[in-house]
Design a protein that fits this description.
By secondary structure, this protein is mostly helical. Helix content is about 55%, strand content about 5%. The protein is built from 13 helices and five strands. It has helices at about 5-15, 30-40, 50-55, 65-80, 85-100, 105-115, 115-125, 135-145, 155-170, 190-200, 210-215, 220-235, 255-264, and strands at about 135, 175, 180, 240, 245-250. Strands 1-3-2 form a three-stranded antiparallel sheet. A hairpin with a 4-residue loop joins strand 2 (about 175) and strand 3. Helix 10 packs across helix 12 (about 220-235).
């Protein structure tokens, strides 16, 4: 993920991306189970206020204390935004309700847009051969390189464990203590979301299939094209190919204001 200038960064932040040092992974994972429960018990068009009310006041996530409920609400907000006004969350939510099988990877991709440490850690995992082991100490070493002298040893260990758990929830790793690299199985909805994120960053045409998000799909480029065509049939994107030229657009996922922001 490469940001060309401050203007691009400002635009991406308006769309929901985050670039700061703050990370939920020193204490939590991507919290897929909590997100799944929250969205399953909420209306598809729920507002941020309604989500927070469900977590803190109605306690639909069954947390034992008010403090735990509030912390859960804060972390889920950090990871996902939980607002229909945030482009990357709104579009993830649209695909979430359209295809249940896509949800773990949708959650992972969305949280990667908002958690810099998690986003950086994916290189360690995706570059690891299928079947190879990624231990907590392996991830600690990777994080130590990515964020030198940033964390105490105890916090580093906690972050490494949580990041490995997040990759497990998404399907990149399997196992409990000894994590092994596994092959993901993305769906057309996952491909639509990955290409959409690349599109927001400014990638177009064939370059969309070479972006950070396309690589994170963990499948060959030709397979991404196949799933993109399937996503196009479902109306999640517009995929066209003529004379070896690929064009991908997202007319149904962007608001008019977002279109103006991107095209300007």
């Amino acid at each position: 993920m490469v940001i060309q200038n401050q203007s691009d960064k400002n635009m991406l932040e308006k769309l929901g991306f985050c670039f700061g040092k703050r990370t939920a992974h020193t204490s939590r994972t991507i919290m897929f189970s909590e997100l799944d429960t929250l969205l399953s018990h909420s209306m598809p068009e729920a507002t941020k206020v309604q989500y927070l009310l469900s977590i803190v006041e109605l306690n639909i996530l069954n947390k034992q204390t008010l403090r735990s409920r509030k912390l859960t609400a804060e972390r889920l907000t950090e990871l996902y935004g939980l607002s229909q006004d945030i482009c990357i969350f709104r579009c993830m939510r649209h695909l979430w309700y359209a295809d249940a099988k896509s949800r773990p990877l949708l959650a992972f991709f969305c949280s990667c847009t908002r958690d810099t440490l998690l986003r950086l850690s994916t290189e360690k995992v995706v570059s690891t051969s299928i079947g190879a082991t990624i231990s907590t100490s392996d991830m600690e070493n990777a994080l130590r390189t990515l964020a030198p002298e940033r964390f105490s040893q105890a916090t580093l260990t906690s972050a490494a464990q949580n990041i490995n758990s997040s990759h497990t929830q998404a399907g990149y790793l399997s196992g409990r203590s000894n994590k092994k690299r596994t092959q993901t199985n993305p769906t057309p909805a996952n491909v639509a979301y990955a290409l959409f994120l690349g599109y927001l960053e400014g990638f177009q045409a064939e370059r969309l299939f070479e972006s950070f998000w396309a690589r994170l799909l963990d499948i060959p480029t030709e397979k991404i094209h196949e799933l993109a065509i399937a996503a196009s049939r479902k109306g999640w994107l517009d995929y066209r190919s003529a004379g070896g030229i690929i064009d991908v657009q997202f007319p149904n996922l962007l608001t008019e204001e977002e279109k103006r922001m991107l095209y300007d």
